[in-house]
Amino acid sequence: MFSIKDMLKRFADTYNKSPDSNLGKLISILHGELATLDDTLARIREWRSIDNAQGTTLDRIGTNVVQPRGAATDEVYRVLLKSKIARNLSKTDINTIIRVLALALDADYSDIRIKEKYADEFEPEPAAIDLIRVPIRRLNEVGMSPGQFAQIIQKTVAAGVRVAQIELSGTFALSTQYGVLETSSTAGLSDPNMTTGGTLGTVFESGDDYPLPI
Fold it and tell me: What pTM, to 2 d.p., does this model score?
């Protein structure tokens, strides 16, 4: 964005180009309006992204992909929008389901693991899957409950396939050596400053959970 000084330079030297002159004050007012317009245009460019958009702008994106908001917050709605866009291109195979969930949660493919239950040793089921690993951190960040997340998964799998179980485990692990206290950035106990350590297998639970419009 050009400055007031740059704008005044464009006038001929016959004009008083001091910022305190009448011309300078007029250009200052014009510069302020142009700066506001520039900020608005920059926000419009940024809000084309689902990750940056807020409020009614997200609603308009939802209209384009036919995904209503319901009572979802902006954070949850972003997950719905991303999953809907990915589901529109889904082939319902295991790899595609992982891709859809990773895209919706902004997670790595390796963060999500799915097991088909037809080969389950104890409770085999022909048309069911177990989601055996999910990034809890992302669910907590957006404030989505396990039941709501299960809705997204159920809408992603093929018709007639049941989501039997969703395991929401943390990163905490016990020491690999008996009688030895271990700390690390992802697995062990926290240090005194609470800057390291693993996370427990907990997840956000809403007191009055609401169904998602999917």
Answer: 0.63
